[in-house]
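Lab notebook, bench 4. The sequencing result for the construct came back, and we need a structural model before the next group meeting so we can plan mutations. Quick request posted to the team channel:

Model the 3D structure of this chain.
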Amino acid sequence: MSDTADTVVIGAGIIGAATALALAERGQRVVLVEASDIAAGTTGRSFAWVNASTKTTDEAYHRMNAEGLEAYQNWAARFGADVIGHRTVGALEIAAAGDRAAQGTIEAHAAALAGFGYQVELVEGEALAQLAPHAHFPDGARAMYTPMDAVLDAPRCARALVAGFVAAGGTFLKGADALTLLVDDEGRVEGIETSQGEIAATAVLLATGAETGRTLARLTGFDGFATRFPLREVPGIVLNTPPDPAAPELVLCTATAPEIHLLPAANGGLRIGSDDIDAMAAAGDDPANLRRAGAALLQRASAFVPGLDQRHDPADCEIVIGVRPYPADGLTIAGPMPGAEGLYLVATHSGVTLAPVIARHMAEAIISGTVPQPLARYALDRFPGFA
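Done. Here's the predicted structure in token form:
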């Protein structure tokens, strides 16, 4: 086949789907190319906590994430909260009574968030118990409460966005590998060659997450992108339990070691993760390894949800390893590819929270040819070798 478009978007994760929709709704002819299926990569294995409460050290980045929370509220009103799998549930960051360092951490976080204008309060005692009546908290525990934090069924949301994109006139090319970037003698994008044929276009957006460097290498024929692109791939283990009647209705995470974070999943169960247990992902997705990791997550979460590890066997839970893209400086990469007019890319760890914001700004950048001010600091040319 051969086709003609204004823009080709590669990758039907949540950022690719959102940007394709934003472009189509602005009148562009858009082809969304996906090698596998919607949300088949990181989006489908994300913890999917939509928040700005964990962004306390960089005000501009915090505000961008807070804008994402507001955008999800707008999406929920437009598409239906159930349709996109969005729920505003609130979050608690918990510090044990005797842990002075953790107490100081949540106080500092709360002060920073309050200074940014983010809704936050410190709670303890009966107020804490009322927020999560099914949960157990150590005596004297104190927590930072951020009521606007939300959870998302990210695959459901991505599917809804692709459906909206197709309804807006976009073309979804599923099961198509992006093979070669087509450029003219001046390095301007002319389209891409896919396993299903050529697509002529004046702009191409890579929204392939952790695969960005390898995708660039394949499209351009320059193998160095696979190793030189300033992106770390950080594997993380996520466990999803079956429905549980004692599942808390909000996000819980700890400022006191051992670290754990859990949230209410769409199926009525819990989604659980832990940064230090993520180290077990290095052993891969061998079933025995995943069962060990699952047992550790269930046991640790049982400190807040008593009996959780007795009610659920790891074999009855969904346990997956997601590879999260971390730009080298911890911030988002979004904007044009230096030296290749018409080639754009996005790679970020906060992809779920930032998807609607990045989509809007990237659509503006692609259509106008000018990078919007909010994206200027996230340009790839801030890294050595990409200026």
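The mean pLDDT is 96.
Will bring this to the meeting.
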